[in-house]
Amino acid sequence: MNFPPQEDGFERLWTPQRMSYVLSNDSHVPPKSDECPFCIAPTKSDEDGLIVWRGCSVFVIMNLYPYNVGHVMVCPYRHVSFLTDLHDEELFEFEKTSAVAMQVMKQVSSPDGWNLGINQGDVAGAGIASHLHQHIVPRWNGDANFMPIVAQTRTMPILLSNQRAAYAPVFAHLAREAGLKESSIAANTDDAVRDKKTQTPATHVENATADMQEE
């Protein structure tokens, strides 16, 4: 006997482009700090690391496998797993930066709403459970259209690099207005990039911590 499907009241945001991540071996192996993409990204230039903004204790990065156009993540520099692992200063900047990210999206692309979420631990569905990160996903009315359902294709009208470039100057301006301090190693000069490539994630955390302690 066949039963008709039951409505559960949930809206579906189809993201088939994320299957390349789900099916990869990397998505099932907890990374060490020296292999963690969130520890490696700050050692690269903003362009290469897809970093939108660097604060003293957290940074904002584009999601390589976005749920929707403009999807970013807020991450602490420190390789910690849970929100409760953050120091008070880190926690304040983490949440304040998330709020600024929403303001940036509103100014750049005028979304109708947002999904914010933190999956903490493997059992909660975290893709990279060993390094805390908060997803901030802009939403528009009708963004779950027929393409993912019929053609198993997610339309992404802008390259991640171009989206990062659109966000970055607005984020820098609004972060300053919000009283957030930018990291002193956020410059994109060739010398700065070369210096950052020689730093380990631990060195970057030490430098960011020093920035946070400066008045």
TrEMBL record:
Keywords associated with the record: Hydrolase, Nucleotide-binding
Pfam families: HIT (PF01230)
InterPro entries with a match to the protein in the record: AP-4-A_phosphorylase, FHIT, HIT-like, HIT-like_sf
Coiled coil regions, renumbered to chain: none
Residue positions binding substrate: N63, H135
UniProt keyword annotation of Nucleotide-binding present: yes
GO molecular function, one term: hydrolase activity
Motif (Histidine triad motif): 131-135
UniProt-annotated catalytic positions: H133
Residue ranges occupied by any HIT domain in the UniProt entry: 38-146
Residue numbers spanned by region Disordered: 190-215
Identification of the protein by name: Hydrolase
UniProt organism field: Bifidobacterium aquikefiri
